Amino acid sequence: MDAFKDTRVLTEAALAIALAFVLGLIKVFKMPYGGSISLEMMPLILLALRQGPWVGVVSGIVYGGLNLISDPAVFHPVQVLLDYPVAFGALGLAGFFRPTVGGAIVGATVAVLARFVCHFFSGVIFFASYAPEGWNPYVYSAAYNAAYLVPSLAIALVVVVVLLRALDGAQPSARQIRYRRSPAH
């Protein structure tokens, strides 16, 4: 929680949330029952890599709340939790990985996989009735959610890697300084 006492971290988190919100409005493709291909995950993943999992998870939860307010798909209170704050908070898991290109690739993949799990269970529990005739609800939920999360991950990975390389010469976060000094780097 001390991280949010640092004005720079708080500002970076606010900017990442705002950028995620704006990028979430620009959809390449929108799924019929929620979910879309967009760059909304990119700033949250980058923030988690730069500032760590705590800042990433909290910022993802805040963004999930904003997303719920702006584009709600509400069927049940548990579904709301799974599809909004928990799913976007899961993107903060990228912060457990090093803020390097390799760490970004693994971290973003793990974070989006965690988000996928949230949407998958929401789909199985609350959206199984939308599955086409003869489809297993598990297969339907996996296919439906992968249809927008896999392309979104691919797009976010490209942009995050480019930005990490571009930001390499910029003023590093305290977390990046710690990793540069560690012997394993």
TrEMBL record:
The chain crosses the membrane at residues 12-29, 41-66, 78-97, 104-128, 148-167. Signal peptide: none annotated. InterPro entries: Thia_Transptr_ThiT (IPR012651). GO terms for molecular function: thiamine transmembrane transporter activity. Keywords: Membrane, Transmembrane, Transmembrane helix. Coiled coil: none annotated. The keyword Transmembrane helix applies. It comes from the Bacteria. GO terms for cellular component: plasma membrane. This is Substrate-specific component ThiT of thiamin ECF transporter. It comes from uncultured Rubrobacteraceae bacterium.
